[in-house]
Fold this protein.
Amino acid sequence: MNLATATAAAVTASSSGSSGLSINLFWVIVAALNFLLFLALIWVFGFRPIANVLAGRKARIAQGLADADQARTDRDSGVAERARVIADARRDAQSLITAAQKSAQEQRETDIAATREELGRLREKASADIAAERDRALADLRAQVADLVLATAGKVVGESMTDARQRRLVDEFLAGGDVTEGRQN
């Protein structure tokens, strides 16, 4: 029904009529139809878009809460994972330190053993050198003493001795033998 025809009908009914308060069924139906028409228009153009906006907002809030819960879970698992990684790194570092200390101790012991061995060799060589030098000095000393003894004996005895005889006598004397056995008077 058209609004203009309804208005025209209402004007004709009021001019024909009665005064006072009366309920006109036609106007009640027109008012109810107008109410329903405006309600449908408000529902289609007002409430439905608002409901869609509210539903979208509700979905975004729910998604935000779900994301926050996921982030909290990820953060908690990240903290646990980080603690595990740090513990693993500390354990690996400790094992590396222990291995390095063990290797250093072994190297130190090897170096000490090599140094002791070298010192032993040097000590033995020095002892041998000292013994050789002592023997050489004693031989030189014996030779000098023998020369002095022979020279003195030659002056005291007044006779001349041959070199071979003199050496034999000196060697026997130094060896602790009796020199008088080989002497002829």
Observations:
- Residues 25-157 form the longest helix (133 residues).
